[in-house]
Known about the structure:
2 domains, 2 strands
Amino acid sequence: MNSISNIWNHPKTSIAGLLIATVSVAGALSQQGVNLGHAGSGTVVTLVSAIATALLGLLAKDPATSSSSSSSVTRLGAWALIALLLPLPFSTGCSGVTVAQDIVNWTPTLQSAVATVDSTAALLTPVDAPIFTAATIGFDAASNLLVTQAKAYLANPSAGLLAQIQSQIVAFQQQVNSSVLEAAKIANPASQKHALSAIQAVATVVSAMLSLVQSVSSKAAVAQMAAHSNIKLAAVEPFLDQSESARIVADHYNEPVSEAQLQLARAEQAQLQAGF
């Protein structure tokens, strides 16, 4: 009876608990490939998860009218943060094989992004084009090597091949981060916009791949990866468009942009905490 009365006496707490449970179950179903059908450009599961998270955020922002309600709102804010940190399919790989497969699945998007980078120099001023070309010249080789390693791992999973993937994704990430900083130095506003926009897509895919690899790597391996990450995420973030990254992720996983934004936020937090 006490449990039932608590539901009526603390409706906000009860609703928050129900919403968090909804997000948790939706995340688990997504990881297992259960989608319950499609809804628009996404799936029913991702749609329900996004709605539940949004409602939890609105509940957390409900204005306080007393000291007790203020305390309640504070707790709800913490619960909203917990919901953001719940496992999401974008950054939680089930195994090295599934991660390798996801990296391979990203190949068309990555190749398209690299091709766009290759053609972008023609859109820049004669002064800026050589700077951009020099900053991005290694993208083709880096992307091809990473995909080749992922396919090799799929064919014959081993710790040695996983170590190669871990090393290569960090090396690629560093190339991309360096190119972002170089592009940001371009003085001509139009050239800089073209340069950063082209690199943005590659940066998004590489960040997604890094999160996938991180999710199946030991703490020691992640620490070693982070130690080779000299150009940190915080240094390049100001020059990247998060909304564009969310759109790319949403298109790849065929899900709502709101769900992709949550996945990106969680992946970014994990990378920052790891030292990337």
